[in-house]
Amino acid sequence: MREALAEADIAAREGEVPIGAVVVYEGKVIARAHNRRELDEDPSAHAEFSAMLEAARALGRWRLSGCTVYVTLEPCCMCAGLMVNARIDRCVYGARDSKGGAVGTLYNLAADPRLNHRFSVTAGVLEEECAEVLRSFFGTLRNRATAGGQDGSGASAPPAEAPRRRGAAAPACGFASGQDGADACTAKAAAGKARGRAQALERAVVGPGGVRPRRVLVALDSFKGSASSEQANAWLAEGLHRGNPELAVETLPVGDGGEGTASALVSALGAERRVVRCHDLAGREVEASYLLFDESDESEAAQVLGNNAGGSSGRGAFIEMAEVAGLALSDTSESMALAGSTRGVGELLLDAVGQGASTLYLCLGGSATSDGGSGMLSALGARLLNDGGDPIQGGLPGFVDVAQIDLAPALQALAHARLVALCDVTNPLVGPRGAIKVFGVQKGLAPDSLDELDRRMIRYGSLLDAAARRVGDPQFRSLPGVPGAGAAGGVGAAVLALGGAVTSGIDAVLDLVGFDAAAREADVVITGEGMLDEQSAAGKTPVGVARRAREGGRPTIAVVGGRAECLDAVYRSGIDFVLPIIRQPMPLKEAMTPEQTRANLVCAGETLARLLSW
């Protein structure tokens, strides 16, 4: 981002609005640019747009997969659209654009399920410095306008510096080159970081406008192995009331779409739990449950997921595939990994349709299967045949023999329902980052079998892609490469082939429970989970909650069972303050008991209440 700020400095010296951008690939800056819209008289000459064009030339390809775009101001619709079309991995920006931001503020093209590519976004990196550059530039323009745009002699004031050649280097932070400039840059960076953290803490403690917070929204995920989301929220709220009985505390159990999310949503959605007979991953007949709830087309979730508007009501179903195909049901042996089928997932979906569900939310977390969703498709009625024209058997033995796929019967079964898969991974179906290579071993597959199984998955993905095109007009160019297609051993690809969407689990859950409306009524938001580390920034509950709270201008505190030593990515993602809950030294096994978890959360709540009232 400091390299992008250096480009913004060049733009300012050229009399352009100071916005800069760089593109990073494999840890190296491969392209850089700054705003030149006025100089080039080019409406597309935005910093990030030009940087992406330069990156494509540097790589010799239009696909910018593997690239991260750093830009000092949140991208507009044009630039965010190019990021989608260029297939970038990630966008990192500094200052939010309240008038035109298109990756989270006014629009969110980065995560729109209707588009054929999604990319991650990290907001607020060096936010104050990026915003100050813009404020200073426009302040100077206003001062010049007030003074009549003239110097003491009455002549128009010259620009600060003659326009530089596009792409010319400039010293960062506006200092001359040399050690003094480097030291000044370092000092400024350190001061900016300290100022930012102090302001974040002040917001969390004192609140906007110097008014101490009185309304607190608690939205904790489960502390796995210790407490459900509902328990964790209730225990923290108990401590908050103990520390300050005057606090108005609202609890909102949430999850990121992984295992246990359904339990968190029962009360929030007013849902009923339906128990049905179906088959688990080993083909055994078992009882499994899912949630049914009333859902209005005017709800936040319906609008985000593209349901028809009009104010009518329908039923939603919330299904965790871990109920019938999860790691908790598997011994992670090779035989189980090979036999594991997603048949039961399809059976749950069919039952939900029979109960009148018009939106089927399928949580993909905790899967123990790698059959590409073939079992699910077969249960829904799709015809998956081998070379002899016979239906394939379940699990990987059948999956590797598939030669023909007909999705029409499955689409007919889901004709009146919208299928939405929730996950927090963006892996494609095949290749080094695909379902088999990345997740196969943890599910029990032998390491020496992965290459052959991935080749089979490539063949299966091609058949599935062709089958989807025979029955519809899919929005993706190549199904195996769609981010999220590799989720849950390829169930993501099966969902996409059926015309469904694969979307961020935490965002969909927050929409379902009405998080944004609740956060608007709060002065501070408290979130958390069992363990917080750098991986949490990839889409886990605390960061998802913090990002949405930040969009509404609310500070966020995370309470956690444990934390990594370095949380830079977490703080950059929107969390202002992290509080581990352990109140005294104790063994991990003891700390994870429900009794100690409750005591720790109650005490942490009391601490936070006193901090907020300080």
Q: What are its keywords?
A:
six-stranded mixed β-sheet; five-stranded mixed β-sheet; alpha/beta; 614 residues; 24 helices; globular
Describe this structure in words.
With 614 residues, the protein is of the alpha/beta class. 39% of the residues lie in helices and 18% in strands. A six-stranded mixed beta sheet has the order 8-9-10-11-14-15. A five-stranded mixed beta sheet has the order 2-1-3-4-5. Helix 1 runs parallel beside helix 5 (127-146). The protein is globular. The relative contact order is 0.10.
Q: How does the major sheet shape up?
A: 6 strands, mixed
| Residue fraction in strands | 15-25%
Helix share, percent: 25-40%
State the low-pLDDT regions, or none. Answer: 149-211, 297-312
Q: Rg from C-alpha positions?
A: 26 Å
Query: What is the number of helical segments per DSSP (H or I, 4+ residues)?
Result: 24
**Mean pLDDT metric:** 84
Shape descriptor: globular
